[in-house]
From TrEMBL:
Family per record: Belongs to the glycine N-acyltransferase family.
Annotated PANTHER family: GLYCINE N-ACYLTRANSFERASE-LIKE PROTEIN, L-COA N-ACYLTRANSFERASE-RELATED
Residue stretches in coiled coil: none
Every N-acetyltransferase domain range: 158-283
Domain of life assignment: Eukaryota
An MF annotation (GO) of this entry: N-acyltransferase activity
Enzyme Commission number(s) from the entry: 2.3.1.-
Name under which the protein is recorded: Glycine N-acyltransferase-like protein
UniProt cross-references to SUPFAM superfamilies, sorted A to Z: Acyl-CoA N-acyltransferases (Nat)
Top EC class, one word: transferase
Iron-sulfur is among the record's keywords: no
Keywords: Acyltransferase, Transferase
CDD domains per UniProt: NAT_SF (cd04301)
Length: 283
């Protein structure tokens, strides 16, 4: 929590609604910022909050937000802005003590205008932004106005349900961005009813999560069951669930991952803007 003199002012959860609204007005670019606030509130309401701290430049939500997402020992810093004018956001970050630049940081889901802010800030702070570490990712979305998938039938022996806790080790071992403590995250998501899986005779064959920030994450089919349409079936079931709840289902697809992109396109997902992930390290 920042002190009164820090330009990044702490925003308590009971005031997040005003911040959500400014990002909703910046739709679709603001979709991730809007969604992360809703997702984190939902976790708190389920008794699963773990400390997602939100700050606004000079206490004004129109300037955007900086949020600290500390997951076990993984230090993630969200930087988002609902307008093209990022001057106040940039100045506040440069003058603030909220971000610990002596740590290894991951800055996720950066729209281009905020990515440029990060490049300038890290240069002035004398820290290293690995701008090309990861390729851009395109937002893929199945909007709540889309039609539901009809006549879905589970094959014999296939069950749709949550990932079982005894499968966390296997799930974690297949995650490309695993880190020390990522098992804790998967356990949290299972408790929050944000895991979805297909089991064949009690064997986990395909799964996907809705992450702690509200987006599709870790869609995976085990090696012995690929090419059988399980990922397609799983996504259809999840899309229908979100349509019933009148919610958009979206995630990010790495450019160059043609198999994943074809899967999303075949289901009617639309591709919108791109974002970046940027690791930041002390020199």
């Amino acid at each position: 929590m920042s002190d009164a003199s820090d330009p990044l002012q702490f925003l308590p959860m009971d005031k997040w609604e005003s911040l959500e609204l400014v990002f909703k007005d910046d739709w679709p670019r603001g979709i991730s910022a809007y969604t992360v606030l809703q997702a984190q509130r939902a976790l708190v309401e389920k008794g699963l909050g773990y400390g997602f701290d939100v700050y606004c430049p000079y206490g004004d939500v129109s300037n955007g937000m900086v949020a600290l997402n500390k997951k076990f020992n993984f230090y993630e810093v969200w930087i988002q802005c609902p307008t093209d004018d990022t001057k106040q956001l940039e100045n506040a970050i440069l003058s603030s003590n909220v971000i610990d630049w002596s740590k290894e940081i991951m800055v996720p889901i950066l729209p281009q205008h905020v990515f440029e802010v990060l490049l300038r800030v890290t240069q002035k702070k004398g820290v290293l932004c690995e701008r090309d570490r990861y390729p851009p990712l395109d937002l893929v979305i199945y909007e709540k106005t889309k039609p539901p998938f009809k006549n879905i039938c589970l094959p014999k022996g296939i069950r749709f349900g949550p990932v079982l806790k005894e499968d966390i080790d296997m799930v974690d071992s297949t995650w490309i961005v695993r880190y020390e403590g990522s098992k804790w995250l998967f356990n949290l998501l299972i408790k929050a009813d944000q895991s979805f899986a297909l089991y064949k005779d009690e064997e986990l064959v395909s799964y996907v999560f809705i992450s702690e920030v509200g987006i599709l994450a870790h869609l995976y089919t085990t090696d012995n069951h690929r090419g059988k349409g399980y990922a397609t079936l799983l996504l259809k079931l999840l899309c229908n669930k979100y349509l019933e709840e009148k919610r958009d289902l979206f995630g990010y697809c790495e450019r160059g991952n043609e198999n994943a992109l074809r899967l999303y396109e075949s289901l009617g997902f639309d591709t919108l803007h791109y974002i970046r992930y940027a690791p930041v390290n002390p020199k």
